[in-house]
Amino acid sequence: MHRDLVERAMAGDHDAFSELTRGSVDKLYAIARLIVRDDDQADDATQEALVAAWRHIRSLRDPDRFDAWLRRLLVRACYREAGKRQHWRRIESQVRTSPAEGADPGIAVADRDQLEHGFSRLSPDQRALIALHFYLGLPLQETAEIVGLPVGTVKSRLFRATQQLRAALDADARLPLVEGGLP
Question: Is the pTM of this model over 0.90?
Answer without folding.
Answer: no
